[in-house]
Amino acid sequence: MGQPSRHGYRVTRPIGNCADRTTTQSVDVFGAQSGDQGDQGDTWTQKTRVTNYTSNPNYEQFDNRAVPFAGDYLWVTSLGTFAYTTWTDWRNTVAGSDPREVTPDPDQGNADVLQCRVLLSSTDKKGNTTSSWSGDRCPHAGGIDQKSTETRRRNGTVSR
């Protein structure tokens, strides 16, 4: 089981990051089965796509909506010709814009997530006004939604 990158991966850029600083859907999950038990994993069946959604792993969902993180959620349990797998994807994440970033923002709409912030102003005793952004006021409105997906595979047949 693996999550190979697609769409022009380069070793000099993270998965899904394009040369123009945008990000794109770039991750699928594939599975393959080792051949004869006697060859110790030297031969494999043709890989099979097990996810039905190409995902963008670059949504900035963590560290105050500034950092992408996929976590350690790729798992396979298998016995004989049966395998049960889980993985994380971002099909339920709601894209948005980050008002804290200055425009033009190359990753707006394809890495920023839905967030509800307001600009707060305060004035000190000397009459100096300062502004800062609030925290995210709608953290569970889709901007942090990663989906744990599962599939079962028996004798090369994939079911969800």
Please, could you describe this protein's structure?
By secondary structure, the protein is mainly beta. It has one domain (1-160). Helices cover 0% and strands 24% of the residues. The chain has no helices and eight strands. It has strands at 30-31, 48-49, 75-79, 82-89, 119-123, 129-133, 147-154, 157-159. The strands form three sheets. Strands 3-4-7-8 form a four-stranded antiparallel sheet, with no helix packed on it. A two-stranded antiparallel sheet has the order 1-2. Strands 5-6 form a two-stranded antiparallel sheet. The protein is elongated and about 80 Å long.
Low-pLDDT parts are none
Distance between the termini: 15 Å
Percent helix range = under 10%
Radius of gyration based on Cα positions:
21 Å
Question: Going across the major beta sheet, what is the strand order?
Answer: 3-4-7-8
Count of the domains: 1
Order of helices and strands: EEEEEEEE
Beta-strand portion reads 15-25%
Structural class: mainly beta
Topology (SSEs and partners):
Elements: E1 30-31, E2 48-49, E3 75-79, E4 82-89, E5 119-123, E6 129-133, E7 147-154, E8 157-159
Antiparallel strand pairs: 1-2, 3-4, 4-7, 5-6, 7-8
Pick out its properties.
single chain, 160 residues, four-stranded antiparallel beta sheet, two-stranded antiparallel sheet, 0% helix, elongated
